[in-house]
Design brief:
A: alpha/beta, 11 helices, 10% strand, B: alpha/beta, Rossmann fold, 2 domains
């Protein structure tokens, strides 16, 4: 969680300094969901991510040097500078891509589930998506599809209360997004997405059910987007008092206190972890800044496996 | 050689490849129990129950799931019900399938095949008659094949099911019942290679799909007028066989491009532009493009026949080009 937080804080700072191009969507405040879910998975399990995907990537085992280089658009980045923040992927650790289309990852995840089912392995596929995506056709098609074929897929709704600038209450017909599970005859549960242990427990149950051919589950993890939709968002659609209130409920502080109370970690150990992570982030930034820009002609690579299709 | 229908040849290709490679699976609407609305799966009924199945009418999920399945090592083949319904799931194709390899810096192989019927049939009207191949030629990221004979569909589908890139295949509804010769032994047809259906000296006609057959009919009728057409079936639209077309134009010095899709901004414009850029000195006459009138396909057969190009458009264009009209 803390690694995600520090990566995101660094990305925010670098963007505000004008060092990063494009759009950056921060996962700050939502870290417990990625951390809790990914703790239940194996390296060969699959996930599809969202436009707010840095946290999923880090929690699934992504390399932050390659991530940071991609944010800079450098040739050493995960996508060689062709994707950027919204399209980071690492198929080798099972991340089938962040996705710039709201709801875009859901059909891909059920496809991974179909592949797993036909190959008869015990892998699972996780689809992360936001409260906005729960109102797309892709969501409804994918849940129905996964249900009728009993696919080994777990749908993780990260309900951070806002679809871009639109409040969830004003755009969504149900109180709890998990209520929609009943339409697809699959289990649905709403949990506190800021409680990493609650996320872990719910995900573990759903992942085990999926591995045991018990079909898909919809988990709604309620959280809050502490930053704007993107870095630079003027956030005119909500009050600062609301944001301040949720800073008091953010997941990392809560979990740190628990770990200290339970005498699992002491403050000195937490400081050591933070120092180690700070150094890793600095290293990632250094790696990215020292990496070369792509050559212009590299735009004409990676379209097809046989490297054709650029001219006619 | 044996004589079989386009549908049967397609079914043979699918069966042979599924027997050879157990990562191939195929799904879509009305295929497993019904055999496909145009019968492509009839010879497969009851075979591979785990690898041939019907889906709900959920096109965005169907096309997007093909991408996910390819990324986990499978070779999905999806039948789209009608080409028109590519639009109901279009984001999964144009925003996902066509982009994910490129935007992830070349990670992963998207060995997937989308295929199904397109084109005009008897009064199917505006939402079941479209030819929309140009759109996929315009947006980079998927290869396009459009076979016109049983021989070609079998060889090109087999090749496509062994390719590591995403491919979309359009099959004209009027072709499924057409018969043709297919070898008994296994064969593959490389993508990107045109087929010269008829050699000729006066005018090159570049075409695909149903219009190949209309062009051949036109060529027969034009014999009495002393006009000798060379008919090139591109078969693959992306990448199209530029070398074969240029070589032909250098011989005939005249070019007609004939397609069923709308004339305005149809793929014929791309071919015409390329040829005038690269073989301008070989041209003795302006290039003529033949395509449908720029309206949605009407229902009445009178109206449909007026809008849809056929052999007569080619005959008229050829005579005009040779200065006989």
């Amino acid at each position: 969680m803390q690694k995600i937080r520090k990566f995101e804080q660094a990305a925010e700072q670098l963007f505000l300094e004008g060092k990063l191009p494009g759009f950056i969507h921060l996962y700050i405040g939502e870290e417990a969901i990625a951390a809790g879910v990914m703790a239940t998975l194996n390296k060969n399990d699959y996930i599809t991510s969202t436009h707010r995907g840095h946290g999923h990537m880090i929690a699934k085992g992504g390399d932050i040097n390659l991530m940071m280089a991609e944010l800079f658009g450098k040739t050493t980045g995960y996508c060689k500078g062709k994707g950027g923040s919204m399209h980071i992927a690492d198929f080798s650790v099972g991340v089938l891509g962040a996705n710039g289309v709201v709801g875009g990852g859901l059909p891909i995840a059920i496809g991974a589930g179909l592949g797993i089912k036909i190959k008869e392995t015990s892998q699972v596929a996780i689809a992360f998506f936001g409260d906005g995506a729960a109102n797309t056709g892709a969501f409804h098609e994918s849940l129905n599809f996964a249900s009728i074929f009993r696919l080994p897929v777990v749908f993780i709704n990260e309900n951070n209360q806002y679809a871009s600038t639109a409040k969830k209450q004003e755009t969504t017909s149900v109180e709890n997004i998990s209520d929609r599970a009943i339409s697809y005859s699959i289990p649905g549960v709403t949990i506190d997405g800021n409680n990493v242990l609650a996320v872990y427990e719910a995900a573990k149950e759903a992942v085990e059910r999926a591995r045991d051919k018990g079909g898909p589950t919809l988990i709604e993890a309620k959280t809050y987007r502490l930053k704007g939709h993107f870095v630079g968002d003027p956030t005119k659609y909500r009050e600062q008092t609301e944001v301040n209130n949720f800073w008091g409920k953010e997941p990392i502080n809560i979990f740190e206190k628990q770990l200290i109370n339970w005498e699992i970690l002491n403050q000195k150990e937490i400081n050591n972890i933070n120092e180690r992570l700070d150094n890793q982030i600095l290293e990632a930034i250094k790696f990215a800044e020292n990496s070369p820009e792509p050559l212009p002609e590299e735009a004409l690579t990676d379209l097809f496996v046989d490297d054709t299709g650029y001219d006619y | 050689m044996k004589t079989i229908t386009f549908s049967e040849a397609l079914g043979e290709a699918i069966l042979e490849e599924m027997q050879r490679d157990d990562t191939i699976f195929t799904y879509g609407e009305d295929i497993a129990k019904q055999g496909g609305i145009f019968g492509a799966y009839k010879s497969l009924l009851g075979k591979f129950p785990n690898r041939i199945f019907d889906t709900p009418i959920s096109e965005e999920a169907i096309y997007g799931s093909a991408l996910g399945a390819a990324l986990v090592g499978m070779r999905p083949m999806v039948e789209f019900h009608f080409s028109d319904f590519l639009f109901t799931g279009i984001q999964s194709i144009t925003l996902q399938i066509e982009k994910i390899r490129y935007m992830t810096g070349g990670q992963g192989k998207l060995h997937l095949l989308l295929r199904g019927p397109d084109g005009v049939s008897n009064s199917a009207a505006a939402q079941h008659s479209e030819s929309i191949e140009t759109i996929f030629m315009h947006i980079p990221g998927i290869k396009i094949i459009i076979p016109s004979t049983p021989y070609d569909i079998k060889g090109m589908i087999k090749t496509s099911l062994r390719s590591d890139d995403p491919i979309i295949c359009f099959e004209h509804k009027s072709l499924y019942s057409q018969k043709g010769e297919v070898p008994e032994e296994e064969y593959l047809i490389p993508l990107g290679k045109a087929d010269i259906k008829k050699e000729g000296k006066d005018i090159t006609v570049v075409t695909i799909s149903r219009m190949v057959h209309e062009s051949l009919k036109a060529a027969n009728e034009l014999v009495k007028d002393g006009i000798d057409l060379e008919i090139i079936d591109l078969r693959t639209l992306l990448p199209w066989d530029k070398e074969t077309v240029i070589k032909s134009v250098q011989k005939t010095n005249r070019l007609i491009i004939a397609h069923e899709t709308w004339r305005r901004a149809g793929w014929g414009a791309e071919i015409a532009s390329t040829i005038q850029e690269e073989a301008f000195d070989s041209l003795d006459a302006p290039i003529i493009r033949i395509g449908a009138y720029n309206v949605p396909m009407p229902f009445s057969s009178v109206l449909q026949n007026f809008v849809t190009p056929d052999k007569q458009n080619i005959i008229t264009a050829a005579k005009k080009m040779m200065g006989e009209m």
